[in-house]
Amino acid sequence: MRIMKKNFKVLLVAVFVAIASCSFTTKKFDNPEKDKLLIDLITYVLEKGHYSPKDMDDAFSRNIYKNFIDGVDPLKRYFLNSDIEEFKQYETAIDDQIKIKDVTFFKLVYTRLTERIAQIEKIYPRILELPFNYSIDEELNVDYDKITYPNNIKALENRWRKQLKFTTISNYYDLIEENGTNLNEKSTEGKSEDFENPKSLSEIEIEARENTKSSMSEYFDFVNDLESKDYFGIFLNTIVEEFDPHTNYFAPSDRDRFELQMSGKLEGIGARLQKKNDYIKIVEVISGGPAWRGEHVEVGDMIMKVRQESEKEAVSIIGMRLDDAVKLIKGPKGTKVILTIKRVDGSIEEEIIIRDVVEIEETYAKSALIKKEDKNYGLIDLRQFYFDMQNYKERNAASDVKKEIIRLKKEGMEGLIIDLRGNGGGSLRTAVDMAGLFIKEGPIVQVASSGSKKEVLNDNDDEIVWNGPLVILVNELSASASEILAAAMQDYKRAIVVGSKQSYGKGTVQNLLDLNQWLRNNEMGDMGSLKLTTQKFYRVNGGSTQLEGVKSDVVMADRYSYIDIGEKDYDNPLPYDKIEPANYEVWNGNIDYEKTISRSVERITKSQQLKLIDENAQWIKNRRDVTTVNLNYESYKKDIESRIDETKKFDSIDNYDNKLIYESLPFEIELMKQDSTLFEKRKRWHKSLGNDIYIEEGINILQDLKSTNNNGKLANVRD
Q1: Both 433 and 333 in a single domain?
Q2: Phi-psi domain of 480 (left: phi exceeds 0; alpha: psi -120 through 50; beta: other)
Q3: What is the total count of domains within the chain?
Q4: 524 belongs to a structural domain
């Protein structure tokens, strides 16, 4: 284990030295304008530290031009064709502007965007003042990539009219269904007997428009909260993502959210907040957090003022940006914050809350005991490879999975499923540590840095936490660290990988670099961070997961089967390549490995449930290809009802019963006695597992996959 940690340390030091040695200490970043300073910093880091730097030329400029305009106006509902013609003068000049820290293009686009937003904010209420004509035949084209920009304000207004009509017709249809009103009835007569106070069609139409107006008001509240720095963040990301899809700029608030996502914990009161009509509303109280423990707040409460214990005056947060309000409410563990709360019943009270470390429970690994006949099996659900960026040993995915395995072993499990479906990855180190739980020792992944030799990351701890049958579930959204674990277990023939035809296909490594570290006497405030692609990783067999992903041993249809998802669907991913394989020894503990796979394939080819899932996936693909919406009510209604009829045959997918029994482990049952929220979450999870044919097939494979508990007599191999 000590050697493995040393390998990681050497690897990270090598990356840092490679970047830091590129004259960062001698180059001066002293531009007084923050936007230009950011461009200077970021472009220099990209040039010196990116795994595969790109030339900033006219082709680069054209991509930035297109992607930034698409990024701020993706639905083409703000800019006019004349705006685009004006922007075009910079189409091949942006690369030159970047080199001299010129932000003229950004400022022009941003200024014009804010002007158009202000115009539309006056237009949309006027459109919604009068009823729409639902009897005329007209369509809305929702293929926004192919439609052109409007030629004038009148055409822009007509585009908004159609968009608002589409939203309203959807509301109108839903309200009619709720009220049981027949469209052919002219007044309040003839209503369904199921409703005591049915509404007339005219009342429903008014309510439908009011609902649209309310949602638009909330949308523009959000838009108006955005500042120049927010749009400049989009511009910076347009630049850095041209190098590869996973190099990203994080403004300070975005960086904080990213670190929270990676660690699964925060310091604060333990509540999720949302801005609604100038108020900061509590939308969830996190189980186990200080607000939950002290019953200080409940969902629906509004926070009006915030006061720190060291200050005498409270700060009103009514109308404040959500990010700014969150900064005031969050704080270090043990500190007090005084909140002025407007309750759901209208009363106003002060609450003193002592901040604490709040763990986001759904981030972490969770397990269930699966019972089939007289056998017990284990399931560990892992949504990401989380870790604490400040202290790896504090809590991470690998150590948590180890704990869950030990708990499941105590309950007599005879086989284990690791569910990585939808797991987008996380820490490379946790993937290596986790793989080490299942083999005696050996290489897990190979990592290549630009211009340097390959590094092999090994598991050097000969402890095997689980030596029994193992299945890993993946889908098209299993990425990065998920692919490292699945690929290693597949190459060692330690586990059978079950799921989609291939996983996501992300074979690159990123490091989060604090941009402030290179500034002396920084008076510009926090500059944020750059998540930079510095390495590529390779399987122990020498292959890359980049673009190719991990191909399942047993392929099962799912709803994403015919939808373009994955690294290969980006415009500018890094290429696939191969390197020399590492020396590793195939696991010799599984008997009938290949035979087990063939049995599984035979089973799923006969499965009517999987045939239905495949048919549903094709239906979803076909529906996604439809790019026009009919705005005639009768046609809209027929289309909706046709979809409902078409999907009825797919209802049985969600009603499927795999006839397995799911139980929480004893330690969690004790927690549920104090936490009804956890009980409900696990109840819903177990119910969904009962409908899951992939879990069922995983158990079938575990039954077929006989195992010797010899801790692996290993055959030397080099593929």
Answers
A1: no
A2: left
A3: 3
A4: no
Under 8 Å between Cβ of 124 and 160: yes
Q: Are strands 271-276 and 139-141 parallel, antiparallel or unpaired?
A: unpaired
Note whether 400 and 328 are same-domain residues: no
Residue that is last in its domain, among 316, 337, 359: 359
Count of CB atoms situated within 10 Å of the CB of 711: 13
pLDDT tens-digit readout, 676-697 = 888 999 999 999 999 999 999 9
Three-state DSSP state, 265:
strand
HSE-up (13 A, CA, CB side) for residue 335: 14
467 and 324 in a common domain:
no
Q: According to the per-residue pLDDT averaged within each range, which of 256-270, 497-511, 583-597, 639-653 is highest?
A: 497-511
Query: DSSP letters of 219-238?
Result: HHHHHHH--HHHHHHHHHHH
Furthest-apart CA atoms within the chain: distance in Å: 83
Q: pTM (2 decimals)?
A: 0.86
Query: Look-up: residue for tokens 């989009």?
Result: 234
Owning domain of residue 502: 363-507+538-717
Alpha-carbon distance of 712 to 439, in angstroms, equals: 8
CA distance 164 to 629: 13
Residue ranges with strand state E in 191-294: 248-250, 265-268, 271-276, 279-285
94 occurs within a structural domain: yes
Q: Which stretch of 66-75, 93-102, 113-122, 290-299 has the lowest confidence by average pLDDT?
A: 290-299
Judged by DSSP in three states, 495 sits in coil
Residue whose tokens read 């986001």: 360
451 shares a domain with 323: no
Q: Is 433 left (phi over 0), alpha (psi -120 to 50) or beta?
A: alpha
d(C-alpha 622, C-alpha 618), whole Å: 6
Report how far apart the first and last C-alpha atoms of the chain are (Å, whole number).
26
The vertex-134 CA angle with 132 and 135, nearest 5°, equals 135
Contact 367, 383 (CB under 8 A): no
Q: Do residues 169 and 132 make contact, with C-beta atoms less than 8 angstroms apart? A: yes
Helix axes 2-20, 428-435, angle to 10 degrees: 160
Cα–Cα distance, 478 to 504 (Å, whole number):
6
Q: Which of 359, 381, 408 is the last residue of a domain?
A: 359
Q: Tell me: do 368 and 335 sit in the same domain.
A: no
Pairing of strands 715-717, 584-586: antiparallel
Are residues 183 and 298 both part of a single domain? no
Q: What is the pLDDT of residues 525-546, one digit of tens each?
A: 889 999 999 999 999 999 999 9
Tokens of 147: 């439609």
Q: What is the CATH number of the domain that holds 322?
A: 2.30.42.10
Assess whether 372 and 272 both reside in one domain. Answer: no
Residue 406's SS3 state is: helix
Nearest in space to 407 (alpha carbons), one of 183, 663, 134: 663
The answer to whether residue 10 is domain-embedded is: no
- Residue whose token pair is 């703000």: 78
Is the pLDDT score of 4 beyond 80?
Answer: no
Distance CA 22, CA 361 (A): 41
Rg (CA), the chain: 28
CATH number at residue 607: 3.90.226.10
308 within 8 A of 327, measured Cβ to Cβ:
no
For 234-252, what is each residue's pLDDT tens digit? 999 999 999 999 999 999 9
What is d(CA 66, CA 145) in angstroms, rounded to the nearest whole number?
Answer: 11
**CA 336 → CA 284, 308, 324, 357, 677, distances in Å?**
20, 7, 18, 13, 26
Residue 667 lies in a domain: yes
Contact partners, residue 339, CB within 8 Å, separation at least 6:
269, 296, 297, 303, 305, 306, 307, 329, 350, 351, 353
Same-domain check for residues 89 and 179:
yes
> What Cα–Cα distance (Å) separates residue 179 from each residue in 134, 186, 194, 206, 634?
19, 14, 9, 14, 18
Q: Report the C-alpha gap between 681 and 685 in whole angstroms.
A: 6
Q: How far apart are CA 43 and CA 480, in angstroms?
A: 25
